[in-house]
Amino acid sequence: MATKRDYYDILDVSKNASKDEIRKAYRKKALEWHPDRNKSSSANEKFKEINEAYEILSDPKKKETYDQFGHAAFDPRYGGAGAGAGPGGFAGGPFGGGQTRTYKQGPFTYTYTTYGGGGGPGVEFDFGGFSDPFEIFEQFFGGGVPFGRREAKPRYGLSLSFMEAAKGTEKNVNLDGQKKTIKIPVGVDDGSRIRFRDFDVTIDVQPDKIFQRDGADVFVNHKIPLSMAVSGGTTEVPTIDGEVRLKIRSGTQPGTMIRLRSRGIKKLHGFGRGDQYVRLQIKIPKRLTEEQKEAIKKFEE
Asked: What is the pLDDT at residue 122?
């Protein structure tokens, strides 16, 4: 029997990786190896392997057990998860019992198991922002029933600016000599695929000079003068809906992060909006007079 790969190697993260880093690594790997997107012969097996690794490493208790006992902690042959009460004692702990789910997509069949406590019902876990690994299709097809036979459709790439993707837009394009109006929903992300009746469109979102995105959240680096960081004041901060006034407290330190609730992007598959995070950077003067330098020294004293 082949030796199972280390879960950290599968997701390409370190043992000290945070939960958020593990989630981001999972999303990246899952999108890369999803059988509907990756046509290599090993895609289905790698996709299964990626989800198995994420199920363990995303759960603090399972991760701790894996770090201590390795794969044996979840192997039924050694009394691991899903094995019922048995030698080794693992099944009597938090990983006893399991629930298996199987999905089919074209020539692919995928099975994964979620484990519950004390031999009880299976417990769903967070698939990096998806409710289960097959909801990744939401990224590709913009919703709808994810499985079942599909006829091959033409695929086109469409480049959008950051704002067009965040706010939604309509694009008039010429596809194979026919004029089409493509309606882009609010909140699409880079790599999303939108399914229309006669064709699919893959979205390419261009980087923005001001805004950076993580899911529905937006990040902005904003510079304030040294005097404002020391004494406090107000500054105008850009958001996707326009500038807002932000109060700066006296004694603000470089790198301070301020959260603006619901100032992010509308969630594509869900309700509400993400947040905007403003990272404050202090503008240090490059040239100071001797008098100014002396004033700063006196201030420090």
From this structure: 38
